[in-house]
Amino acid sequence: MKRTLRLAMVGGGEGAFIGSIHRAAAALDGDWRLVAGAFSSDPERNRRSGEMLGIEPERTYPSLDALLVAEAALPPEKRIDAVSIVTPNHLHAPMAIAALDAGFHVFCEKPMALNMEESRQIAQAAARSGRQFGLAFTYSGYPLVEEARVRVARGDFGKIRLVQVEYSQGWLSQAIDREGNKQAEWRTDPARAGLGGCLGDIGTHAFHLAEHVSGLQVQELCADLATHVPDRRLDDDVSVLLRLTDGARGVLKATQVAAGDENGLKLRIYGEHGGLEWAQMEPNTLNLRWLDRPAEIIRAGGPGLADSTLQRLRTPAGHPEGYIEAFANLYRAFANRIAGEVGKDCSFPSVDAGLRTMAFVESVIANNASDRKWTELAAG
Ligand SMILES: NC(=O)c1ccc[n+]([C@@H]2O[C@H](COP(=O)([O-])OP(=O)(O)OC[C@H]3O[C@@H](n4cnc5c(N)ncnc54)[C@H](O)[C@@H]3O)[C@@H](O)[C@H]2O)c1
After folding, report:
1. In angstroms, what is the span from residue 54 Cα to ligand 1's centroid?
2. Nearest atom within ligand 1 for CA of residue 42
């Protein structure tokens, strides 16, 4: 039987956003137990965070480097199996590479790194270590996203013609980065966020979801980046026309200045016979529409779902699952892969997804800066 794996977390201290979601998700199915961490670069905040989480004081470390050295020296039955990286983006590459080289599996937040060069270095570290590298493209973890992927792949809609993805947020509509909002502050700083602002933060999610569900790859693009908030140093609004494999066309819209919008991620895919629509704020419904028959509503937990979708559900129909459970599906697949659980869900975004999304970021920026209308998406 698969044992409970031991997890360390870097980042995710008091006041952080995504760390607590990772902790809840990793714990949900009993696959992971958090036993160590370097939760904050602020020593007192780090200590308080470790205490609050019930971590043994000697396993709340002042830094990732200290964590890796000390954990590697522990006997195998106590030592961590994996490190979860939930820090701002500029730390992903150095931390992931250090953890992989120390012999630990890594589950890392997106975007993979600041740029393509760093992303390639992570890919090389993963290859030479032989350890698993998971990437938190959360939305691929939703059960009905899996159902949508399966139905497109088995040809329900015929040849795919249109891929339309929109990720609309409004929380960066004002200069809250200059008013003490911690999450906004590093996301609008090129040194800590990377090449893209909204593009790297949520454009990558939209791009990954579109390619993941459609099974197609973006080959060429035509982009328009905008920065609406005065003196902001990175884009806050992204529009991209897409040319995908097999002649499909697409549109990707990502923005963080749609004032009042929450987390409006929506995907629509249309083939010759019909199409689908999935929206993150109503994640337990998948809408299908057809040329020759009435529309269908597919519900999480309802009849007719694929086996791989059922593996991603925990509750009966009508008991909504959401964001934490989607994350938990990625953590469970990551654990299954590490434990070699053949026949179970071992599917999670990894190095390939990281390289492609980073290629998308760099290609959009290059296109936006060029005079050419269409440019290729440089392969990852
Ligand atoms: N997958 C998703 O849906 C999703 C959602 C939100 C954020 N994210 C990603 O998660 C990451 C963190 O985002 P956030 O919004 O939680 O940021 P945040 O600012 O809320 O949290 C970052 C944490 O990292 C800690 N930290 C910074 N430097 C550190 C260091 N040297 N050592 C240890 N800890 C350190 C901070 O103290 C803080 O606790 C980003 O890469 C972001 O893109 C992903």
Report:
1. 20
2. 37
Residue 328: what are its φ and ψ, rounded to 5°?
Answer: -65, -35
Give residue limits of the domains in the chain: 5-135, 142-280+284-315+350-369
What are φ and ψ of residue 163, in 5° steps?
A: -130, 115
Scored b (16 or more CB within 10 A) or e, 236-257 reads: bbbbbbbbbeeebebebbbbbb
- Name the 3-class secondary structure at 216: coil
Centroid of ligand 1 to alpha carbon of 182 (angstroms):
10
89 C-beta closer than 6 A to ligand 1: yes
Nearest Cα residue to 210 out of 278, 272, 159: 278
Q: How many CA atoms, within 13 angstroms, populate the side-chain half-sphere of residue 17?
A: 9
For the chain, which ranges sit under pLDDT 70? 1, 380
CA 41 to chain centroid, in Å, comes to 23
Element (H, E) at 190: helix 190-193
Quick one: DSSP state of residue 10? Answer: E
Cα 12 to ligand 1 centroid, rounded to whole Å = 6
The verdict on whether omega for the bond into residue 294 sits within 30 degrees of 0, i.e. cis, is no
Give the closest residue (by CA) to ligand 1 atom 9.
109
Question: 88: Cβ below 6 Å to ligand 1?
Answer: yes
| Per-residue pLDDT tens over the stretch 255-288 | 999 999 999 999 999 999 999 999 999 999 999 9
Is there an atom of ligand 1 within 6 Å of 210 CB?
no
State in Å: Cα 343 to ligand 1 middle.
33
State the Cα–Cα distance between residues 235 and 224, nearest whole angstrom.
10
Ligand 1 atom at minimal distance to the Cα of residue 136 = 1
| CATH superfamily, region 142-280+284-315+350-369 | Dihydrodipicolinate Reductase; domain 2 (3.30.360.10)
User: What is the architecture of the domain spanning 5-135?
Assistant: 3-Layer(aba) Sandwich (3.40)
In whole angstroms, give the CA distance from residue 354 to residue 359.
9
User: Do residues 307 and 314 touch, judged by C-beta distance below 8 A?
Assistant: no
Entry pTM: 0.98
- Distance from Cα 177 to the centre of ligand 1, integer Å: 15
